[in-house]
Amino acid sequence: MPASNYQVYKNVLCDAQIKRWQKYYVQEATFMYNSVDREQHGTSFLQNTGWGLKRSIEMFGIDTWIDPYIKPTEPRVKANHFHDAYLNALLSGDDFCEHEDISGLTDDQYYVSCVLMLNPYMTESDAGFMIGDTHIPYEFNQLIVFNGTQRHKPLAPKQGWVRLSYYCSFSNAFKVRFNPNSVGYNNPWHRDIKTNKNLK
């Protein structure tokens, strides 16, 4: 897929969803550094995991607005093919390696990634997002949708801001998360992915 295969949408969350997110972030949200990436890639960033479909709907209402945003990037995508979600928080000095969310897809498989910017006060637009050689500035309530096979990199702030984002993905490819230190492959992140072509 070419690096131009992405879409950017502004103001996707309504006021009620924004207020619910702000309350959760200030009063409840906790983050931990991702040890898997630190061990495998030497990079480090904060993450809040466990964001399944139910939690994503309750917080952001994605069932009411996500479908028309993901279709232009991949017409075959279905919102009920929700795959994964989590929150990322990057601070000054953190690093998130350039990566692909998935590789080795067959022609009948797809993987659509979405990143929603969530700090309403951050003014450091350079701490945005790279897709290939394209820089997308950070802007609150902005949704970036792209093909997960494309190389991309979230950019950490250089100032004192917390670069917050929500990530979710949609795919018809069966994925097994691979963690060499876990027989059960319970890795909460997915840098290394096996795609089982016999299961869909």
Secondary-structure blueprint of this entry?
Layout: E1 6-10, H1 15-27, E2 32-33, H2 35-41, E3 46-48, H3 53-60, H4 67-70, E4 82-90, E5 111-117, E6 129-131, E7 134-136, E8 142-147, E9 152-154, E10 163-171, E11 175-177, E12 193-195
Antiparallel strand pairs: 1-8, 2-3, 3-4, 4-10, 5-8, 5-10, 6-7, 6-9, 11-12
Could you explain how this protein is built, in words?
The protein is of the alpha+beta class and 200 residues long. The chain has one domain (6-186): Sandwich (Jelly Rolls). The chain is 16% helix and 28% strand. The protein is built from 4 helices and 12 strands; from the N terminus they run βαβαβααβββββββββ. The protein has helices spanning 15-27, 35-41, 53-60, 67-70; strands spanning 6-10, 32-33, 46-48, 82-90, 111-117, 129-131, 134-136, 142-147, 152-154, 163-171, 175-177, 193-195. Mean pLDDT is 83; it is low at 176-200.
